[in-house]
Amino acid sequence: MLNSTFPITDVSAADSTAHSHSHSDHCGTSGCSMKYDTFKVACSSCNLRELCLPVGLSAPQLSHLDSLVATRKTVKRGDALFHTGDPFRSVYAVRTGFFKTRVSSEDGRDQVTGFQMAGELLGLDGISTDRHACDAIALEDSQVCVIPYSQLEDLSREFSDLQHQFHKIMSREIVRDHGVMLLLGSMRAEERLAAFLLNLTQRLHARGFSASALVLRMTREEIGSYLGLKLETVSRTFSKFQEDGLLEVKQRDIRITDEAGLKALVNSVRC
Fold first, then answer.
1. What is the domain extent for residue 196?
2. Which helix (H) or strand (E) holds 112?
3. 127-153 exposure pattern, b = at least 16 Cβ within 10 A, e = fewer
């Protein structure tokens, strides 16, 4: 039940120690300050390759992909990688850091639509209309690999393995969206937050981090926006989980003390 709601890839290790020389620039029409790394990015030597686009590619195919992914971009906390309406030219693989995507309603309210971490792709929303349909905001200082989409299409036609992997990633996003709809449509507040925390720890564990302890990069208000809950409900539910012995909560530091109890909450939902 949990994995069908929030699919993850069960592999290990993230490289959070990359250092680089960079210079300041601006991200076109979005107007946010960014840094561009001018050195070459090698997918073949990246510790995220088993989580990211290159998974399963042969050495010659990786070499071709290396020639495509030639730029890294650093996005400071609070800055945008892209905004709604920006021209779509590239997809972005998160190298380090954490992002949220959001859309704005007609009355000006922001709705968080997802949280993305190392090894996951951003920018797929722009494929259908050639313009981005959401904002992507860094929740901490982050770095992405820039993958020009037109060149990715050309390479995908040449290598069926790459095309297959890209389709799998797009399918995963669709399934994830369905999972969110299930959250919003059939789960109580406790079940929504339990599913969210379990998914988050599973994804982090796949990147080499603890399976039970995490630091929330997003605020409780952002969690509430994503889960369709009011801020007060999210805070109250965190407190209840702590009282019930499911979690230890110290501001943004969370430690899961009863994973089975959280799973029992989620698995009680009837699909």
1. 187-267
2. strand 110-117
3. eeeeebbbbbbbbeebbbbbbbbeebe
When pLDDT is averaged across residues 258-263 and rounded to a whole number, the result is: 94
* 112: Cα within 13 Å, side-chain hemisphere: 21
- Quote the number of domains for the chain: 2
**Is 94 a member of any domain?**
yes
Query: What six digits make up the tokens of 214?
Result: 């995490």
Q: Are residues 21 and 84 part of one domain?
A: yes
Higher pLDDT, 9 or 42: 42
C-alpha triplet 118, 124, 130: angle, nearest 5°: 145
Residues 6+ apart with CB under 8 A from 16: 96, 118
Cα–Cα distances (Å) from 2 to 42, 180, 240, 263, in that order, read: 34, 11, 21, 8
CATH number for the domain including 112? 2.60.120.10
Residues 104 and 227 in one domain: no
Say yes or no: 79 and 195 in one domain: no
Confirm whether 21 is domain-assigned. yes
Per the rule left: phi > 0, alpha: psi between -120 and 50, beta: everything else, 38 is alpha
Tens of pLDDT along 81-139?
Answer: 999 999 999 999 899 999 999 998 878 788 999 999 998 889 999 998 999 999 999 99
What is the pTM assigned to this prediction? 0.78
DSSP state letter for 66: H
